[in-house]
Amino acid sequence: MAGDRHPPEPLVSHLQSAGIPLSETAHTPTLCFVPLLNKLGSGSTTTTKPPSALTRLRIVLTVFFALDGFIFAGWVVRIPAIKEQTGASSSALGLALLGVSVGAVITMVFTGRLCRRYGSHPVTVVCAVLLSLSVALPPLTHSAAALAAVLVIFGIAYGGINVAFNSAAVDLVAALRRPIMPSFHAAFSLGGMVGAGVGGLIAGSLSPTRHLLGLTLIGLVVTAIAGPALLRLSPPAAPTDQPAKGNAPHRLDAHTRRLVLIFGFIALCTAFGEGALADWGALHLEQDLNAHPGMAAAGYSLFAGAMTIGRLSGTTLLERLGQTRVIVAGGATAAAGMLLGALAPTVWLALVGFAITGLGLANIFPVAVERAGALAGPSGVATASTLGYGGMLLGPPAIGFMADWFTLPIALTSVAALAGVAALIGYTTRR
Question: Which segments constitute the Major facilitator superfamily (MFS) profile domain (predicted)?
Fold first, then answer.
């Protein structure tokens, strides 16, 4: 299941038809003869965007992934303050957070169709504007019901942009013929780390209203700069030896649907943990381990930083180990790390557990979404994203209910259980 390490034969014509920069496969000795062979085979045609256009597209998509993580993390680190402002109990807060889930999951179901009709790039830009505007709404509420209502709007934007830019990224992965999907999700994690870090630094001195309004301004400025660049770049054409997913039939055969659902469920199991730590990690450190609010906010920043490191090395790991080993090893590592993070008696041990969990979860979600997109195009991305981000967004309210029934540390061990399930599914379906 691993990505190819060597260019297929015939070498030059295949590379030219795929539009791949020769430097990306320069480790192959055969490329010493590329200049001569290019002259002999100059009659071949290119079916994808020039390498420079692909590079620009990769950069712009990376910016939107980072912006999404930055805005989302800026919101989650202020959840304790919003909880106090609204006077909500853990279960009431869990129900309010369900608003994000409802908005996102419903939107994800239809975003694949929007991407096929209007293109993934325009949908990405529109959702980025809505995301930037909606993040300023939660601190304006003073009840759990009002918070839930505005979080539905936030969830609509969040779900839409995630399907749209993941669809665009899948097209680019196919054009480049390299497993670069983790690098985009590394940008999301890096944005989350920065957003959480900034939130932790200003949590004691800046109100949630001013903080989240600042995120709105930053989001609109970044979208105003990166949006036109993305709209000018059309999606790359599929390589000649692969079907064009945009023209693929909308109704998938039963076998493909099962595979897409399997990858979607793997994404759900691991994204559950990401959502749980985003919304409850800081509260666990502050409430159960008596951490300072700034230190509590740093917990998610550390988790996101570990995910960033793991995803930055994701392409190399996938090329060397293959997708099955990455999924199995990642799930097992995340399960062990989360058990430590949830049950540790001290703040520092819990932080170590959060970091280990981030490393383990890092590459499972992007691999699952990329494989679903390769199988079924935007529909596959939408299905896997709906399940995956559904797990991320349904996880927090589930943790809230379990925290009321048991305790928050016990509730967080469910993250470890689902990470182990993802590893088991990845192993049993390896063929």
Answer: 54-431
CA atoms within 13 Å, Cβ hemisphere of 296: 23
pTM of the model: 0.72
In the chain, the number of structural domains is 1
Q: Using CA atoms, how far apart are residues 386 and 378, in angstroms rounded to an integer?
A: 12
What b/e readout covers 203-227, taking b as 16+ CB neighbours within 10 angstroms?
Answer: beeeebeebbebbbebbeebbeebb
- The answer to whether residue 28 scores a pLDDT higher than 60 is no
How many angstroms from the chain centroid is the CA of residue 328?
19
* Per-residue pLDDT tens digits for 373-429: 888 877 888 888 888 877 876 787 889 889 989 999 999 999 999 999 999 998 887
Checking 42-48 for CB contacts under 8 A at 24+ apart, the result is 44/12, 44/13, 44/16, 44/17, 45/16, 45/17, 46/16, 46/17, 46/19, 47/17, 47/18, 47/19, 47/237, 47/238, 47/239, 47/240, 48/18, 48/19, 48/175, 48/236, 48/237, 48/238, 48/239
**Chain-wide mean pLDDT for the chain?**
82
Residue 283 falls within a domain, yes or no?
Answer: yes
Three-state secondary structure of 353-416: HHHHHHHHHCCHHHHHHHHHHHHHHHHHHHHHHHHHHHHHHHHHHHHHHHHHHCCHHHHHHHHH
Q: Is residue 38 part of a domain?
A: no
What's the CATH code of the domain at 298?
A: 1.20.1250.20
Instruction: State residue 185 phi and psi, 5-degree precision.
Output: -70, -25
φ, ψ of residue 26 to 5 degrees: the values are: -70, 0
Tokens at 90, concatenated: 């853990």
Both tokens assigned to 323: 């997708």
Q: Tell me if the bond preceding 10 is cis, omega within 30° of 0.
A: yes
How far is it, in rounded angstroms, from Cα 308 to Cα 188? 8
What's the token pair of residue 293?
Answer: 């609010």
Amino acid at residue number 346: T
Q: What is the rounded (10 degree) CA torsion for 289, 293, 296, 297?
A: 170
Question: Using an 8 Å Cβ cutoff, are 286 and 79 in contact?
Answer: no
